[in-house]
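Re: beginner question about structure tokens

> Can someone show what the tokenized structure looks like for a real chain? I only ever see the sequence side.

Sure, here's an example I had lying around. Input first:
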Amino acid sequence: MSKKFSNRLRDLKEMRKALNFFEEKIKFTYEPIPDVFEEISHKVKENIGEIFHNSSKAMENESAGESWENAVENSNNNFTKEDKDIIKGLAKMLGKTDIDGQVSEIKLTCKFLDVQIKDAENEKLKNEKLYKTLGATIGLALVIILI
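And the corresponding structure tokens:
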């Protein structure tokens, strides 16, 4: 149970890193979004890379926004519903506006992610120790009962 708090924090930080990379790529290279997403999928860890990979592949048949929302929703990660809603918010402008509009939407999403990262750190500090202590206590109680 305590590991899920660490995993959520790791995934949020990895998504933040991926969005920073995305912002820089669209600002300076003018590459198509599917190509940038595919490149990001190879540079970040599995859970987050999967979102970018799936979104990139889905852009062949659907809009960038729809593919992003579906990839985030169907991904295997440790995000809460609130985290997913924030990340899916990026889909509103994805591929629909000029570069400046997309960059500003990425920055907004990153600001919201920063708040979520702080919350995740606080939850981790508070709950991780609780679950580890609880697990050790229950284990000790079982040993005493069995003896």
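Each token stands for a local structural state, so reading them left to right follows the chain. The longest helix spans residues 99-146.
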